[in-house]
Design a protein that fits this description.
About 50% of the residues lie in helices and about 15% in strands. By secondary structure, it is α/β, with parallel strands linked by helices. Helix 7 crosses helix 34, helix 23 packs parallel to helix 24 and helix 23 packs across helix 32. It starts with 17 loop residues before the first helix and ends in a 9-residue tail after the last helix. It binds ligand 26W.
């Protein structure tokens, strides 16, 4: 890179006045600020600056502008004593900040122009950013979309979570297998966060409780812990789009207390003391890849308690600081529990109010109960959190007592309401008695919250009729639905700038980015041939970009003219990536058996991580790559079919996929996917969906129209009936000759260099158990895929459907979802701050 400017030479143009340069929004101010930041923050001359120095200078330039707005916004919220949403989430899967912040500030073009003047390679700078992967998938990304929307719809909000030193692992593919590498996202520094070294709270673990009488003679409880750590706040500002509102994302890092007392823990044992210090700092080290059974992970329970306790102490501090009394805590704050990971907050707020602030039980319970709301994100039994009472006793003895007391009072209520129904009491208890006593976190969350919601219509109904049925019968008014949404800023404007430009030109302005229902204006253009051609050109350009990326990173050459058929999501049996594979092998076999068989050229693209301990999911990745290896090298089919596995699916890589997809695979077994949000991202970018009636697919189909959606498979009701009637996959295997020969082909060793055993765990499981009914939906899926193929041959009609999909996606903006939470669940109002 050549140097346009070093600090010794004259500035290229006269510098703007200092105060305007630091946070000014013009191209000129941005340029000067970048030069200043490179020099004064990074301490670099331009000619020796590394890409990371340049990235840092750009990030600080943007951050200065965020901070100015943030402080102004914080002051305004404080002055109006605004009711505030606290979003408690163990995960925030943020994705890269730079491009998103430029967009929300409205300086994307000015910054690019400044970059051109400075002869910077903007794409190289962007590529230098390490994304904060502080989440596993849907739940964590949803939290990030909601932070963006809370700011954009101008609702005062704080996101509370954990500043993991290592986020979700990086995935590499070696010999077709997933290999996990640790995610060292902080190694070059994180310019978006501000450490608040003075803002720290103590968090205790272990020990025992003691009763004592206070100075008024009242019986109180004291927790004598045997370990204490500190949580230190790290703040990241989240700016809304085209507004002055900025939300605070406050993540906690664990540290050993400053006055680390060697004596107290380990008399004379220096190494023991150091060990205790390391243990304290381990708490926020690593994100758990949580798509695996929630059993028995002590560190995870500690992490949950750690961030919940810091967050509640911070809320109490803020409230005491401004109001002086905790009586109105629930009027000031509403706290949303993102799944049960923060459900300990119910017990912790009780502890803080009763033990630390001397409040009586009834008032404390009234406040607690009015503060919390709980969102459920999964019905899968293995994902419903429970913790053994033994572990609780060891780590959180005081909380166990409080939970027993909450439970005692709650079960009395149940007994009075349902006289004599002891089975119901057993089912509803916060403590399960079967298979060792365990605390049921979902029950704790429902009892402690005033509102409970699922994340799509179907899912919310299933919550009411299955896992929380008894609770729904007791408190029907507590149950809600808020269908998930995603932010169109990141998932259209940032990911797919060509599409955003076309939409803005067609709609006349960029209002659609704040009100996604404006996309309806595109509808009439579906019948406009000239517009359709432009639409197609945008899609093809994105497909070319992706093809280039895949060639470099997945070593597969793909044809941008072929149908891009994409399934990108965590690997899980219920999501049924293997159903997709069975279809691919079916097509392969058809062509091999009949070279004249006509199939539209397709590129099958997969992406997604498998939990490191989930053997079957890892085997599915291996099978995808194995099938790809054979098909991509078989000259008889590789002009028609290609298979690519995109390594390391992340927010950033998702942004490469969504714009380029023609077909979005949303093929989970009905009743299993709570909502899905990738389904929305694909459809917003003009992909058509092939999907089951599961999660939010149901509502997407309703919105885009059944004629613009490829539906197949059993309904959730049919699944239930079929399962209770006795499901025998073996019979389906025997009864469908094509299916049988596809499975036999996999078992033949063709995809495993002659080894017939490699994929047997997978195929045997399908033929014998098939818990997610892949075989039952196989025929319907393959036939539906044939309809997709036929539809693809009519490009005009396909483009028309693609346009209508985008035009009708307004409902799936996370802004809509946040407005529903605000109105129906949080009772919180917008506090506009001008930019
Ligand atoms: C055992 C599988 C498992 C375990 C844990 C699946 C999911 C989890 C997470 C705890 C919950 C989760 O990420 N749920 C996802 O949440 C998204 C946002 O609401 C939904 O769109 C997804 O459907 C749901 O799986």
């Amino acid at each position: 890179m050549t140097t346009a400017q070093t600090p010794q030479s004259e500035p290229p143009v006269p510098a703007a006045p200092r105060e305007r340069t630091r946070t000014g929004m013009s191209q000129e101010a941005l340029k000067q600020a970048f030069i200043d930041n490179l020099f004064y923050v990074q301490g670099r001359f331009r000619d020796v600056a590394t890409p990371n120095d340049l990235y840092m200078a750009a990030a600080y330039t943007v951050r200065d502008r965020l901070l100015e707005r943030w402080l102004k916004c914080a002051q305004s919220y404080k002055d109006s004593a605004a009711r505030t949403v606290c979003y408690l989430s163990a995960e925030f899967l943020l994705g890269p900040h730079l491009a998103n912040n430029l967009l929300n500030l409205g300086i994307t073009e000015a910054a690019h122009a400044a970059g051109v003047e400075l002869e910077l390679d903007f794409s190289e700078i962007m590529a230098t950013e390490e994304e904060p992967g502080l989440g596993n998938g849907g739940l964590g990304r949803l939290a990030a979309c909601y932070m963006d929307s809370l700011s954009t719809v101008q609702i005062p909000a704080i996101g509370y979570g954990i500043r993991y030193e290592f986020g979700i692992f990086d995935q590499e593919i070696e010999n077709g297998w997933q290999v996990e590498k640790s995610d060292t996202w902080l190694k070059n520094g994180n310019p978006w966060e501000i450490p608040r070294y003075k803002l720290r709270f103590p968090v205790k673990f272990g020990g025992h409780t003691e009763q004592y009488h206070d100075e008024h003679g009242a019986l109180r409880v004291r927790w004598a812990a045997d370990l204490e750590v500190n949580g230190v706040a790290y703040d990241t500002p989240i700016l809304g789009y085209g507004v002055g509102n900025v939300s605070l994302l406050r993540l906690w890092k664990s540290e050993a207390p400053e006055s680390f007392d060697f004596q107290a823990f380990n008399v004379g044992d220096y190494y023991g003391a150091v060990h205790a210090k390391i243990e304290a700092e381990t708490l926020s080290k690593v994100l758990y890849p949580n798509d695996e059974p929630a059993a028995g992970k002590e560190l995870r329970l500690k992490q949950q308690y750690f961030f919940v306790s810091c967050s509640l102490q911070d809320m109490i501090r803020l409230h005491l600081h401004t109001v002086g009394s905790l009586d109105s805590f629930a009027e000031k704050f509403v706290a949303q529990l993102n799944d049960t990971h923060p459900a300990l907050a119910v017990a912790e707020l009780m502890r803080l109010l009763v033990d630390e602030h001397g409040m009586g039980w009834d008032q404390a319970w009234d406040i607690t109960h009015r503060t919390f709301c709980y969102t459920n994100h999964t019905l899968l039994p293995e994902a419903l959190e429970t913790w053994s009472v033994r572990l609780f006793e060891k780590i959180l003895p005081r909380h166990l007592e409080l939970i027993y007391e909450i439970n005692r009072r709650f079960l009395d209520e149940v007994r009075i309401r349902f006289l004599g129904d002891e089975d119901r009491v057993t089912r509803m208890s916060l403590i399960s008695e079967d298979g060792g006593r365990r605390v049921r976190m979902a029950h704790l969350a429902v009892v402690g919250a005033r509102a409970v919601n699922g994340v799509a219509e179907l899912h919310s109904n299933l919550v009411k009729t299955t896992i929380l049925k008894d609770f729904y019968e007791l408190w029907p008014e507590r149950f809600h639905n808020v269908t998930n949404g995603v932010t169109p800023r990141r998932f259209i404007a940032v990911s797919n700038p060509r599409l955003a430009k076309l939409i803005t030109e067609t709609c006349g302005d960029d209002r659609w980015l704040r009100d996604l229902s404006c996309l309806r204006q595109l509808e009439p253009y579906a019948d406009d041939a000239e517009f359709r051609a432009r639409w197609r050109a945008v899609k093809t350009a994105a497909k070319r970009d992706l093809a280039r990326w895949l060639e470099q990173h997945a070593w597969v050459k793909v044809d941008p003219q072929s149908l891009f058929d994409v399934q990108a999501k965590r690997l899980h049996e219920y999501k049924r990536q293997h159903l997709n594979l069975l279809h691919i092998v079916s097509l392969y076999q058809r062509i091999k058996q009949d070279p004249n068989h006509s199939v539209v050229p397709r590129t099958f693209i997969f992406g997604g991580k498998a939990a490191p301990g989930y053997y079957m999911a890892k085997l599915m990745i291996k099978l995808i790559n194995a099938v790809g290896e054979v098909i991509n090298h078989d000259p008889q089919v590789n002009g028609t079919l290609r298979v690519a596995f995109m390594p390391n699916f992340s927010v950033q890589n998702g942004q490469r996929l969504y714009p380029a997809a023609d077909l979005s695979e949303q093929i989970s077994l009905a009743g299993k996917e709570a909502s899905g949000t990738g389904n929305m991202k694909f459809s917003m970018n003009g992909a058509l969906t092939i999907g089951t009636l599961d999660g939010a697919n149901v509502e997407i189909r309703e919105e885009v129209g059944p004629e613009n959606f490829f539906l197949f498979g059993m309904t959730a009701d049919e699944v239930r009936q079929r399962q209770s009637a006795g499901y025998h996959p073996w019979e389906i295997y025997q009864g469908d000759a094509e299916l049988k020969s596809v499975i036999d082909l996999i078992n033949s060793g063709l995809f495993s260099h002659g080894d017939p055993t490699l994929f047997r765990p997978l195929t045997d499981h399908l033929v014998n158990q098939d818990p997610f009914m892949v075989l039952a939906d196989y025929r319907a899926y393959v036939d539906c895929q044939a309809r997709v193929g036929t539809a693809w041959t009519d490009q005009h009609q396909w483009d028309r459907m693609s346009i209508l999909n985008v035009a009708r996606m307004g409902k799936f903006s996370s802004d809509r979802a946040i407005r529903e939470y605000a109105e129906h669940i949080w009772q919180v109002e917008a506090k506009p701050v001008a930019c």
